[in-house]
Amino acid sequence: MKNGENMKILALLPAYNEGAHLESVLKAVKKQITDILVVDDGSKDNTSQIARDAGVNLLSRGYNCGKGQSLKDGYQWALENGYDAVIMLDSDGQHDPACIKDFIAKFNETHAHLIIGARNYEEIPLVRRVSNKIGKALFSAAVGENIPDNQSGYRMLDRVLMERMLLSDESRYHFEVEMIAICIAEGWQIEWVPIPTIYADEVSKQNPFDQIFGFPKVCLKARRIIQQKRQEKCSQPK
Ligand SMILES: Nc1nc2c(ncn2[C@@H]2O[C@H](COP(=O)(O)OP(=O)(O)O)[C@@H](O)[C@H]2O)c(=O)[nH]1
Ligand SMILES: [Mg+2]
After folding, report:
1. Distance between CA atoms of 58 and 15, rounded to whole angstroms?
2. pLDDT tens track of the chain, all 238 residues?
3. Does residue 1 sit within a domain?
4. Is there a domain that residue 149 lies in?
5. Distance of CA 205 from the midpoint of ligand 2 (Å)
6. What residue numbers bound the domain in which 130 lies?
């Protein structure tokens, strides 16, 4: 595997109704990395136009399919265009593009398939902190190891993981949670970089109902994925 400095790396930004934030986010991302892809997902505002005006690559299918599906579309595009890795970050300003260099440095050090930006949960506003802490405990118990931040969408993936994630049937937020379980199941070490915790005027697009009732389901699925892989390995001849 090449060094981060010699790699072809794409910044991948899923975006849904981010007209208020995308322009400033892209401006900051451009200072860190030249190759950028925005995946607009049927936004009803000027998200696509902002990406076009900024001169970055844009995928836009005109109707909403979910963040996970947009990420898969982005990986497919990155693989077809010969990228060695993607760094994915949110378009709403919650991920500081200045941290991109920290992901590349961590990749140079570890060559991990997956590097995740971890926030300090103590800095998350109270209501979100409580749900995130419960989610962290549930998910860590389900996968059998401490996962500091399963909700963070600030991540770096190499081609191997991008290819593997194209097989996932998740299309919304649970896609990113499943990605962690897949790495554990495959025995791929996950690496972490600290990122700042940013909350400003952005409004989450996550459905609270889905968060509360869908999360235990995704934890059980994560457990199943890991157990199935373990059984597969055990049933292979020595
Ligand atoms: N392409 C796409 N992006 C989405 C969708 N939902 C959310 N996003 C983007 O994914 C990122 C994180 O979404 P957000 O709702 O802020 O999640 P939260 O910060 O975890 O509550 C933002 O950049 C959103 O614009 C979607 O359905 N499709
Ligand atoms: Mg957000």
Report:
1. 10
2. 666 668 999 999 999 999 999 999 999 999 999 999 999 999 999 999 999 999 999 999 899 999 999 999 999 999 999 999 999 999 999 999 999 999 999 999 999 999 999 999 999 999 889 989 999 999 999 999 999 999 999 999 999 999 999 999 999 999 999 999 999 999 999 999 999 999 998 889 988 888 788 999 999 999 999 999 999 989 988 7
3. no
4. yes
5. 7
6. 6-231
Contact, 86 vs 157, CB < 8 A? yes
Q: How many domains does the chain have?
A: 1
Which of 92, 96, 199 best tests ligand 1's pocket when mutated (most atoms within 8 Å of CB)? 92
CA 11/CA 54 separation, integer angstroms = 14
Task: Calculate how far, in angstroms, residue 206's C-alpha sits from the geometric centre of ligand 1.
Answer: 7
Assign residue 119 the CATH number of its domain.
Answer: 3.90.550.10
pTM exceeds 0.85:
yes
Contact 1, 158 (CB under 8 A): yes
Q: Ligand 1 pocket: which of 205, 209, 211 to mutate (most atoms <8 Å of CB)?
A: 205
